[in-house]
Amino acid sequence: MAATLFSKVWDAHTVRILPTGQTQLFVGLHLVHEVTSPQAFDMLRLRGLRVAFPDRTVATVDHIVPTSSQERPFADPMAEEMLATLERNCVEFGIPFHALGSDRQGIVHVIGPELGLTQPGLTIACGDSHTSTHGAFGAIAFGIGTSQVRDVLASQCLALDPLKVRRIDVDGVLGAGVTAKDVILEIIRRLGVNGGAGFAYEYGGSAVEAMSMEERMTLCNMSIEGAARAGYVNPDETTFEYVKGRPFAPKGSDWDAAVTRWRSLASDAGAAYDDRCLVPAADIEPNVTWGIHPGQSVPVSGRVPRLADLPEAERASVAEALDYMGFSGGEPIAGTRIDVAFVGSCTNGRLSDLRAAAEVVRGRRVAPHVKALAVPGSVAVKAAAEREGLDELFRAAGFEWRNAGCSMCLAMNPDRLEGRQVCASSSNRNFKGRQGSPTGRTLLMSPAMVAAAAVAGEVVDVRTALAAEEKAR
Amino acid sequence: MSRIARIRGTALPLRGDDVDTDRIIPARYLKAVTFEGLGDHAFEDDRKALRGAHPFDDARFSAASLLVVNRNFGCGSSREHAPQALYRRGFRAVLGESFSEIFFGNSVALGLPCLTLSKADIAALQELVDREPATGVEVDLEALRVTAGPLEAPLSLPAGAREAFLTGGWDGLNLLLERFEEVRTLAARVPGPSAS
Q1: What is the pLDDT of residue B196?
Q2: How far apart are CA A30 and CA A42, in angstroms?
Q3: pLDDT digits (tens, 9 = 90+) for A92-123
Q4: Interface of A with B in 113-172 (CB under 8 A)
Q5: If we measure between CA atoms, which residue out of A283, A276, A300 comes closest to residue A173?
Q6: For strand B151-154 and strand B145-148, is the pairing parallel, antiparallel, or unpaired?
Q7: Exposure string (b/e) for A50-76, b if CB count within 10 Å is 16 or more?
Q8: Residues B51-108: pLDDT tens digits?
């Protein structure tokens, strides 16, 4: 019978149906970081339990590391204690740890794929909601909380209810300057921040098939912002090409067997979906958020909504967002003045993201009033970017070039907004206070759009504004 | 592990859709290696911004143990610190129009039931407890009903979670470890990343 990748992978990892009716699902790979794990290890110690499968567990440090000086001990004693705790826990429980200073350290959702740990057909869990990123490879990847981190450490299993599957087809060709980030912001705006509740999103269609693995990671990364617990793309030649030769990828004859198996896991033609939705690629423009959740976005040519144009039921939440963001409603999003520009994060901190931003700033200068940061997602991304001279391009344009980490995405390290600063950000969340200042404001957009905003000092359409500037010179 | 069938107390109405976990507990409080003391910081930035006008600062609700919220509560980050902060502040159930799935699951693991009511029933309950903060509210997980003064409404809870609360198996680790040989058998069948 025709089946989806989701149901094939789910079934292959089902241990049993629990007396509660939930599924006991085996986790093929558990990724661990410093923030959501310390209490989980404490719970294990309290019960005298060991880590069940240390060889299926990998740890790194990303959220709290400073991206400027990484000298130990850190200036922030809480961050220092948090890292020291993870180091101790990894030694005590025998977990491989990609430490600060290692050439394999980086944002957990960047290094997993980079090292070839992330593979098609795996179930993956991590105490971080952006674990959906790994679905780009045709894995089923869940973000979990700390008690579940404990469960996976101790049993390598999760108790879960199965998800429904919504197929989202993005058909056609994306316009020049339109990226995977714009696609996912479009999908979230159309389906809503709560639209994916109960679903895994299967992304397909010709525009998704044409995407590189890094673009697919951006797409799957933000599934959770649309409330989809997991998001994935069926594995294909692009996937296999990316995984091949990476440190943890199967080798030799194992490789051929793995590819055959992975191919068989892709959703069958004629598989039944619980829901379907179509987003024509040609409809998508570069998108920019104007509000306080990732569904509140407009195409860059568009305007911030006006309360008067909205149905009564939507007004309260839009009014709250307009008020927080300092918009009166009805103004074009282009022209919004920014104070900070941030390129990086698990959404857009990979080599192709840095290339796209660097290409925009090449030969240009960041506007004098803008503080601009370029933060590679991993040590490996940083090294690759430096080999291409991207660091020089960024520095010459007035960007700060930093070390790998989560940086200004989430305010758990020294990189943060101050006061009511407005940040053009390639990250994933524009929640109130997300970037560290309780009154700070975030405009989500693609890395190229962030770079263009950094140069212009305000939100601009990367496709036209810089070309126009060039002509004027 | 104790059974959770009935929760009684007074309730605090917290209005607004899409309340994310960054608002419930700002990220700076995630830097501690324990959950202790998180209750004091729940909604800290929202409360500061409202200068005392936030319902968490309203003395009429200081003893409330039920939280009444609206749509998509707990969206965003997977931090268990969010339900931990609410639990440590004294809440023992959350009633709302809908919840983010990760928040819901994290709450189950703490023994904090998140119960879904219709939009109209939530509005009525919020209005009632706003008017009469001393109203006793009772949540019954067996009958799947909530009563509050003159108001009585059906509530829903996924069957697995309901069973977990009613049997006391909501801390699921014992169940997952119960037949561990089956986990080992399956592990031998499904490949993981091969070391190098």
Answers
A1: 45
A2: 17
A3: 999 999 999 999 999 999 999 999 999 999 99
A4: 116-117, 119, 122, 127-129, 143-148, 150-151, 154-161
A5: A283
A6: antiparallel
A7: ebbbeebbbbbbbbbbbbeeeeeebee
A8: 999 999 999 999 999 999 999 999 999 999 999 999 999 999 999 999 999 999 999 9
Q: CA–CA separation, A160 vs A163, rounded Å?
A: 9
Q: Which of A347, A353, A424 is nearest to A385 (CA)?
A: A353
Q: Is the pLDDT of residue A230 over 90?
A: yes
HSE-up (13 A, CA, CB side) for residue A296:
27
Contact (CB, 8 A) for A299 and A446: no
Q: Does B57 touch chain A (CB under 8 A)?
A: no
B134: which residues sit within 8 A by CB, 6+ positions away?
B10
In angstroms, the CA A150 to CA A155 distance is 8
Using a CB-CB cut-off of 8 Å, the residues of chain A touching B79 are 35-36, 145
Q: Is A36 on the interface with B (CB under 8 A)?
A: yes
Residue B61 DSSP code? G
Residue from the list A39, A151, A160 with its beta carbon closest to the beta carbon of B173: A151
Shortest distance, CA A467 to any CA of chain B (angstroms) = 37
Domains and CATH numbers, chain A: 5-162+235-263 (3.30.499.10), 289-472 (3.30.499.10)
The β-bridge partners of A164 are: A199
**Are A227 and B195 a contacting pair at CB < 8 A?**
no
- Which pair of structure tokens corresponds to residue A450? 């962030």
Inform me whether the C-beta atom of residue B32 falls under 8 Å from chain A C-beta atoms.
yes
Residue A201 distance to chain B (closest CA, Å): 15
Tell me, what's the ipTM? 0.90
Pairing status of strand B6-9 against strand B137-140: antiparallel
Tell me the domains of chain B and their CATH numbers.
6-189 (3.20.19.10)
Interchain CB contact of A217 with B (< 8 Å) = no
Phi-psi category of A84—alpha, beta or left, where left has phi over 0 and alpha has psi -120 to 50?
Answer: alpha
Contact yes or no for A155 and B110 at CB 8 A? no
Integer Cα distance of A402 and A68 in angstroms: 6
The residue assigned the tokens 């839009």 is: A318
What predicted TM-score, i.e. pTM, was given to this entire model?
0.95
Q: How far is the CA of B19 from the CAs of A195, A292, A393, B16, B112, in angstroms?
A: 15, 10, 40, 7, 18
Q: For residue A79, give the H/E element and its range.
A: helix A77-93
- Does B177 reach chain A within 8 Å, measured CB to CB? yes
